[in-house]
Every structure is written in structure tokens, then in C-alpha cells.
Amino acid sequence: MSRQAGHEPAGAGGQGDGKGRRMYRVLVVDDEPQIVKALVINLRARAYEVDAAHDGAAALRVAAARHPDVVVLDLGLPDMDGVEVIRGLRGWTRVPIIVLSARHASDEKVDALDAGADDYVTKPFGMDELLARLRAAVRRAAPSGPDDDASAVETETFTVDLAARKVHRGGADVRLTPTEWHLLEVLVRNPGRLVSQKQLLQEVWGPAYGTETNYLRVYMAQLRRKLEADPARPRHFITEPGMGYRFEA
């Protein structure tokens, strides 16, 4: 396999598999050939299309050219830190990013999530766990069907259009990642109610989650930065310490 990038010969991601099912494209970014090989084999066996890149510069080039549905990213790349790759991607795409890294420190996980990663898996990892998290990331990014109860939720500083899955502030659209949107949606659909940490984790990330409260802290901080007039003194996204979060319109 090339040290720059390896491509599946099929066309653009998201096409059908001949049985009416959508085929999702995954970009694997890792400089360890054994890990790349294992991921490519397992993903292709499950009908994913796969591209691979072995450094950060190649990852950014391949992502721009191939528009993956999910990125699986190692942080320890030979040319740049993976967090810089996350920031580079977040400059133009909301694609779900799953970090796959040997770094176990809590602050490094928070740095990756804060830069825009959607999930964090530490090495060594179980293939079944990684595939489950990848499926969850795909589901979060998939557009939802029409909702009969969907409506607009207005506050002093922003408006959430649940039907269109858009947020407006100051006359402009606010760019949210799929994970940020799902967290916001759960909260605004429960105005004034305490939503527990466990409920938020399981509704946004999936049933296997329940203790990753650092995810919530990072993503709530991101929502406050994007939507609150004064993020340090939130008016709409209220923390109930040790319990959960509450949305107040």
C-alpha cells in the first residue's frame, strides 16, 4: 500500500451496494500498517468503502477529494498532530471523526473532543467496539425523516428549526456538527426538564455509553460558545452539577 494513500477503486461514497442499501465511505488515518490493514479488511467485509492515509497531509487531501462519511483518525501521525487534522477538517466539513489513539490521558481526550472529534477509542481496541461506535457515528450524521411534531424553538439569541435541522443566530446559520446538533435537539425537545447525563449520553452517542461525562462537558461548552450571549454565564444551557443539563428558552 502506498505511504500516501490507498483508495478503493469504486466511485464516490454513499452509493448503493446493489441491494438498495447505502454504502458508506470510511477514511482510515493511521501510520501503523498493521492497524490500517486490519481496519480495511474488517470494514470492507461489512460493505464499507475504505480510503487510507498514513499522515496528516494525505488525510486532508483524501478527505477533500473523496468526501468520506466517517473518519477514523490516529493522533500520533508522523507529520502533524492528529488534533491539527481534526481542526483542518472542521474548517469545512461536519463529517463524524472517531479518534483511535494510544493516548489515554483525560486532557488529551478533551483536547481532541474540543477540536471537533465525535468519539475517542483508545488502543489497544476491540474491533467489535470500534465498529459499533462507527455505526453510531453514521446514525448520528444521517438525516432524520420528517417529524410531525417538529417546530421552531426561539430564544433571545438564537432559533432552532427542528424540521430543517438548522440553527440561526443574528440572521446567520450556525454551523453545528452532527453530534452538537443531536445534543441540542435532545435538550430543546425537553424544555425546562432536567435531562440526566446518562440519558444524554445514550440518546446522543448510543446505548453503550453512560459514563463518558467528559464528552458532555466538552460538547456543552461548544454549544454555549456558539449559541449563548455570554458562554461563561449561560442563560439557556444550564448545568445541574452531578445530575445533568436543562434547556431554558
Protein described:
Helices cover 37% and strands 20% of the residues. The chain has 249 residues and is an alpha/beta fold. It folds into 2 domains: 5-141, Rossmann fold, CATH 3.40.50; 152-247, Orthogonal Bundle (Arc Repressor Mutant, subunit A). Helix 2 packs parallel to helix 3.
What's the helix and strand layout?
Elements: E1 5-7, E2 25-29, H1 33-45, E3 49-53, H2 56-66, E4 70-73, H3 82-90, E5 97-101, H4 106-115, E6 119-122, H5 127-141, E7 152-154, E8 159-161, E9 166-169, E10 172-173, H6 178-188, E11 194-196, H7 197-204, H8 213-227, E12 237-240, E13 244-247
Parallel strand pairs: 2-3, 2-4, 4-5, 5-6
Antiparallel strand pairs: 1-3, 7-8, 8-9, 9-10, 11-13, 12-13
The number of helices is: 8
Task: For the record, give the distance between the C-alpha atoms at the N and C termini, rounded to a whole number.
Answer: 53 Å
N to C succession of SSEs: EEHEHEHEHEHEEEEHEHHEE
Using only C-alpha atoms, the radius of gyration works out to 18 Å
Query: Mean pLDDT across all residues, rounded?
Result: 87
**What is the percentage of strand-forming residues?**
15-25%
Q: Work out the count of structural domains.
A: 2
CATH superfamily of the largest domain: Response regulator
The CATH first-level class of the largest domain comes to: Alpha Beta
CATH topology of the largest domain: Rossmann fold
Kindly report the spatial arrangement of strands forming the biggest sheet: 1-3-2-4-5-6
Coarse structural class: alpha/beta
**Helix content range:** 25-40%
Low-confidence stretches: 1-13
Number of strands: 13
Dominant shape: globular
CATH architecture of the largest domain: 3-Layer(aba) Sandwich
The major β-sheet equals: 6 strands, mixed
